[in-house]
Amino acid sequence: MDIAAAEAPGSAERAGGPRRRGRVLGAWLSGLVLAGVSVVVGCRAADTDGITPVPQLLAFLPWLLAPAGFALLLAALARWRLGLVWGVAVLGVIAWFIEPYGRTSEPSGAAVAGLRVMTSNVQFGRGTDALVPAIRRERPDIVFVEECEYGCQDRLREEFGQGDFPYRAEVEGGGSEGSLILSRFPLKKAAGVPGTMGMPGAVADVNGHDVRLQLAHPMPPLPDQVGLWRKELGTLRDYAAAGEGQSTVVAGDFNSSQDHAAFRRILDTGLRDGARLAGSPRTPSWPARTAPRIGTQIDHVLVSADFSARRADFLPLAGTDHRALVVDLTLHQRK
């Protein structure tokens, strides 16, 4: 670090006065903050998720503008020229990567069916009481529910099992292991993606068109589980790639954002992010306590290229740390 550049001529500085010491301290602090931010931004630029704590920080990449801006201010106050250039460069790279990732081309075929999809992580079933009226109010056609343990599944079966959603695919389990898909459309059995937490799959008959459905809920990137998180996202990527040429919806809590390389690999198979198609590419879904002001979008509805999306709403639900996501989709005829 060019600390000497932070020094200004003058008798007080040469004598070791407080102004000189303040500039040196400011330059050092600026450099430390910029170094930390640069590691995270560098991994994003290198298309890798790195090791802890990089995957955890990548989820909040846009918010790194704050510490980078603070470091730039310190460099300016310290008159540290290298820090000024460094800070401006870091801010520029972050701003570049805030641009949403993935394809957005519209399907050219005729519209054949409309469907509304909802996904909600109910946090060990605690958000079930709030999810029930949300389902009645939003009237989705397909609902993906993560962390829906035994009590949650029984409640949803009691509330919707007879008329509203006669079809379901589920993985029973306690805590975070249970998950299910509710559908107004007939469902055919399909092997779900294996994972630590339940990720059921099915094939829906949407007005005579087969649509592959897959619930996503890989492990979160906890400090000691980054490898498992990356592996389970890779399994979802393999599922997406295997469906080339087939109508597909993969929805749920991905525990990852578009700033994670493992998530971008899924988009690289050709799937589109429904929230981005509907104009909400960066709306936070977690943590619910601070969203929408501060947070990250880790709940997604991903669709194949024969879908368009016209609306995406993120709904706060009591009892859970995730906001539910509702996306209005249109299925188009493949050409």
Give a verbal description of the structure.
The structure is a single chain. The protein is an alpha+beta fold and 335 residues long. 36% of the residues lie in helices and 22% in strands. The chain has helices at 11-14, 18-45, 54-58, 65-78, 81-98, 128-138, 150-160, 226-242, 261-267, 274-277; strands at residues 111-121, 142-146, 167-171, 179-183, 187-190, 201-206, 209-216, 248-253, 272-273, 299-303, 307-315, 324-332. The strands form 2 sheets. Strands 3-4-2-1-12-11 form a 6-stranded mixed sheet. Residues 1-13 have low confidence and may be disordered.
Compute the average pLDDT.
Answer: 94
> SS-based structural class?
alpha+beta
Whole-Å distance between the termini? 58 Å
Question: Portion of residues in helices?
Answer: 25-40%
How do the strands line up in the largest sheet?
3-4-2-1-12-11
Strand coverage percent:
15-25%
Radius of gyration: 23 Å
The H-and-E topology, N to C, reads as: HHHHHEHEHEEEEEHEHEHEEE
Number of strands: 12
Q: Describe the global form.
A: elongated
With helices defined by DSSP (H or I, 4 residues minimum), what is the helix count?
Answer: 10
Largest sheet: 6 strands, mixed
